[in-house]
Specification:
Layout: E1 10-14, H1 19-32, E2 48-55, H2 60-72, E3 77-82, H3 99-119, E4 127-131, H4 135-145, E5 149-153, H5 157-172, E6 183-185, E7 189-191, H6 208-217, E8 225-228, H7 236-244, E9 254-256, E10 283-287, H8 296-309, E11 312-316, H9 330-334, H10 336-342, E12 346-349, H11 355-360, E13 364-369, H12 373-382, E14 386-388, H13 395-405, E15 408-410, H14 424-436, H15 438-454, H16 460-473
Parallel strand pairs: 1-2, 1-4, 2-3, 4-5, 5-8, 8-9, 10-11, 10-13, 11-12, 13-14, 14-15
Antiparallel strand pairs: 6-7
Helix pairs in contact: 1-2, 3-4, 8-14, 12-15
The structure holds uridine-5'-diphosphate (UDP) (2 copies).
The site of one uridine-5'-diphosphate has 10 residues, from α3.
């Protein structure tokens, strides 16, 4: 870098709503401006960073994450951005809308106010990192103000590929014959219709989430670049196709900089001491993320499956979609016999746990996961074998990535959430397969090694991150 043209940047980091979107932004903020005691700062200059906090938050989990983050990063500023009222009646169909999607909609509708909010910060930001949900409102005004804007994608490179091609896919999907393996999508290969979330094939006029994704993707060409929480080894075809410009000539430069680095030290913060007494790699960790609740009959069947598998387990159970309502009594749900039969080898928690700390624990031998992208990257980073049980949205495409990269196994016939009751026998068999397969252990460990390499000197993600730092440190 030529120091004579270096400037002192003021970075604004603008997440959207929900833990799945907040988490990568907190990590990015910490990567750009780590606490002074840590050494992973690639930018050897002083910078100011302001975290934009969307008000109101959706869940108390977000509130807690933000408070913890700001207390461990006292040098980072924060600024509250009040969004327009959440409209629970704004549904194009009669189905009750997902509380996360109506919140995304409020963020999306408020995005045009954000550029003005940012311009009132003192000093005015010299660069902005923002969520895809905000793109339509801020890319043009920021470009007019001459402020470079990068968009961070919170899902896989593969699902991002699908999002940017979905408009053309909707017009051609009727042409493919029903027996085929699916439409060939550059960077993804042939993708069966079953793996594409139904909302993405709906017309934007008829579906709120499709409208939000579609509108925002159309503004990406106005940004300086797209940041992906992924790495070359993990999604080689999608990443290289996106970077080649062959998929969509209007896409800006693509920067795969994953797996994102943890926000704090993971040492000494294990909140589950029970794990310390378990043999190495003996425990399966079970969690379906921050926003997905299975139906009660499926939760009971999962309980029976875990019991049947004979494997030790740590299960983070969630019975409602948004954390604030979670009052279900576990004894009523799973029955006392379950607790009697598994008390020697299992632990169930309802509270928020530090998932990264758990995945890093030597007792964990596998992860039964819904394949939310943050969870996938956290497992990839540590080479933890995964049993994919995708339920919604991007998760089947993410599960394809997991399977192809050798990080995990996936039983496709389990379907989308609620499609059918997955029986305890099937669950037990798959848990056993994941926990005992030597082949899977090896290939998952390889993913972990490659994830580490991506951030070593000359690693693919480290180099890409260096380019971003150079861009923001120079005018
Ligand atoms: N998470 C956690 N503790 C919990 C539940 C979730 O630390 O009890 C974290 C998890 O590690 C991940 C994020 O919350 O970083 C969930 O994001 P993901 O994309 O995996 O799934 P989503 O919740 O968006 O479906
Ligand atoms: N969804 C999710 N994670 C995502 C994207 C979507 O959990 O990353 C949820 C979304 O909120 C909605 C469901 O997945 O509830 C979409 O389901 P479906 O594909 O059946 O679409 P719908 O018919 O509900 O529009």
């Amino acid at each position: 870098m030529d120091s004579s043209v270096a400037i002192q940047p003021h970075i604004a980091v603008c997440p959207s709503a929900g833990i799945g979107h907040l988490t990568p932004f907190l990590r990015l903020a910490s990567m750009l401006s780590p606490p002074p005691s840590t050494t992973n700062n690639s930018c050897n200059i002083t910078l100011t960073l302001t975290l934009i906090i969307i008000r109101p938050t959706l869940s108390s989990a977000e509130e807690n994450q933000i408070n913890t983050f700001l207390s461990t990063h006292p040098h980072i500023n924060s600024s509250h951005f009040q969004i327009l009222p959440v409209d629970n009646n704004n549904s194009s169909n009669s189905k009750k809308q997902d509380p996360f999607v109506v919140h995304y909609d409020a963020v999306f509708r408020s995005s045009y106010l954000l550029a003005n909010h940012l311009s009132t910060l003192s000093p005015q930001p010299s660069v902005v990192f923002s969520d895809l949900m905000l793109a339509s409102g801020i890319t043009k005004p920021l470009a007019d103000l001459g402020i470079p804007n990068y968009t961070l994608i919170s899902t896989s490179a593969s699902f991002f590929t699908l999002m940017v091609t979905s408009a053309s896919l909707r017009t051609t999907s009727g042409d493919s014959d029903s027996d085929s393996d699916g439409d060939e999508i550059p960077g993804l290969g042939p993708i069966p219709m079953d793996d594409i979330p139904p909302f993405l094939m709906s017309e934007p006029d008829n579906n709120m989430l499709t409208r939000i994704i579609d509108t925002n993707c159309r503004h990406l060409h106005e940004t300086k670049g797209v940041l992906l929480n992924s790495f070359d080894f993990f999604e080689p075809e999608s990443v290289s196709t996106l970077q080649s410009g062959k998929l969509l000539a209007t896409l800006p430069p693509i920067f795969p900089i994953g797996p994102f680095i943890s926000v704090g030290s993971l040492k000494g913060s294990n909140n589950i001491s029970w794990l310390d007494n378990q043999p190495p790699k003996s425990v399966v960790f079970i969690s379906f993320g921050s926003r997905t609740a299975m139906a009660k009959d499926q939760i009971r069947e999962l309980g029976k499956g875990i019991e049947r598998s004979g494997i030790s387990f740590l299960w983070v159970i969630k019975t409602t979609v948004v954390d604030k309502e979670d009052k279900e009594e576990l004894n009523d749900l799973l029955g006392e016999a379950f607790f009697m039969n598994t008390k020697e080898r299992g632990l169930i928690v309802k509270e928020w746990v530090n998932q990264e700390v758990i995945l890093a624990h030597s007792a964990i031998g596998g992860f039964l996961s819904h394949c939310g992208w943050n969870s996938v990257m956290e497992a990839a980073q540590r080479g933890v074998p995964l049993l994919a049980w995708p339920l919604h949205g991007d998760q089947r495409v993410n599960a394809r990535v997991v399977e192809k990269a050798g990080l995990g196994v996936w039983e496709r016939s389990w379907g989308w959430i609620g499609e059918r009751l997955v029986k305890s026998e099937e669950i037990a068999l798959k848990i056993q397969e994941m926990m005992t397969s030597e082949k899977l252990k090896k290939s998952a460990a390889r993913v972990g090694e490659e994830a580490t390499k991506a951030w070593e000197i000359d690693g693919s993600s480290k180099k890409m991150f260096g380019k971003i730092i150079d861009n923001i440190c120079q005018k």
